């Protein structure tokens, strides 16, 4: 397992240099002088047992009991926000340091680059366990993913901007304490959770890991803010899946009801449909309580299903490319359908296909996070934003991909497969999502041109597709008692 972790955490770390070039410019890899890993008291402690020191190079912040690989923060970053943001120069100076927990992941990496470009001083905190999941389950991103170290070096070469890197587990409060003291964030963007419903339903051990990692990790973040950065704004990624599919309109976090002649505004009822979704419900309750009890300021972004892979920043160089999951464990619906169409596999519609959800482009994810940071919650306020731009059923998506695929010469068919999930397959769904628009969100609407781009991207990398990973393999009703790992 130690060898596996080494492969996962430090792929490409042994190479002497990485090419990352502007026109007629090359950058050399500079290693930190020391990078030390210890076994932390965390949910992944049984998976991790490895110590390694890379070659000499740039100095690294070190302290006892901290897993750290830190690059210096740029002192010359611009403070200008992107279009649509309400961030003023005064606000940017007050809230410029942003810690992104889970910054090596799909949403986190795109957000880290975007905020760095916008002039924020950015630090990524990540235990890199998402890469380990791929090794354990025999999965891989459609796109080749560089190591986090090479990604950050490439970004520095292209833009001159530094992103600090702290490698460790937020379930280890000692590590998180040292990280907070070192970076002193004004805002914490929390993407650092196991984010797959199917992964949480594989077996008992992964259900327990998901709940422990997500709930305890978030609790640690809340305590770190309370003890070390009490004015820090928490921007937490939730999920629209917390609401379930009620037969009434879904409000943004709260609902006003009248019962027996009395009226009150209460948190909207939650109906999580997997151990993953339930962990998010627990997070929301814990955050709401600490806002009330401790005066923490927090924004809960209940995000819909994300699609796409490109942002302005990730397109700058192949080393910056984001991951794109197409498998049945981590892949989201539209991304999966586009990859299936690219390789000539029928689109896998679960059950009747009437399952309706909110969707948004990855470019809108980074825009929404920036807006939340630029317009922070007040002390003691627990805000909830529903973060999506459009609603589609699974059948709607299949029809859109079929039409777009045929336009570029693909032969696209649809296959109805038994639904591995326990969910309503035909239902009412109308969720409100106005608060981010009011703050200035300029959404990227799913269009023919965007689908063409995503399909062509999938075609470009279709030789990397493992067809064995396409069909659903995790059943909600047949959840296993023992871990299932792909044999070597």
Structure commentary:
- This protein has 14 helices and 16 strands.
- The protein has 488 residues and is α/β, with parallel strands linked by helices.
- It has a single domain, classed as NAD(P)-binding Rossmann-like Domain (Rossmann fold).
- The protein has a 7-stranded parallel β-sheet, with helices on both faces. A 3-stranded mixed β-sheet has the order 11-13-15.
- Helix 8 packs parallel to helix 9 (275-294).
- The radius of gyration is 22 Å and the shape is globular.
- It starts with a helix and ends in a 28-residue tail after the last helix.
- Residues 98-386 form the NAD-dependent epimerase/dehydratase domain.
- InterPro entries: Epimerase_deHydtase, NAD(P)-bd_dom_sf.
- This is NAD-dependent epimerase/dehydratase domain-containing protein.
- Belongs to the NAD(P)-dependent epimerase/dehydratase family.
> So what's the overall shape?
globular
Order of helices and strands: HEEHEHEHHEHEHHEEEHEEHEEHEEHEHH
Fill in the CATH topology. Answer: Rossmann fold
- Average pLDDT, rounded to a whole number, is 86
| Contiguous helical run count | 14
The strand count comes to 16
CATH architecture: 3-Layer(aba) Sandwich
Family: Belongs to the NAD(P)-dependent epimerase/dehydratase family.
InterPro entries: Epimerase_deHydtase, NAD(P)-bd_dom_sf
Protein name: NAD-dependent epimerase/dehydratase domain-containing protein
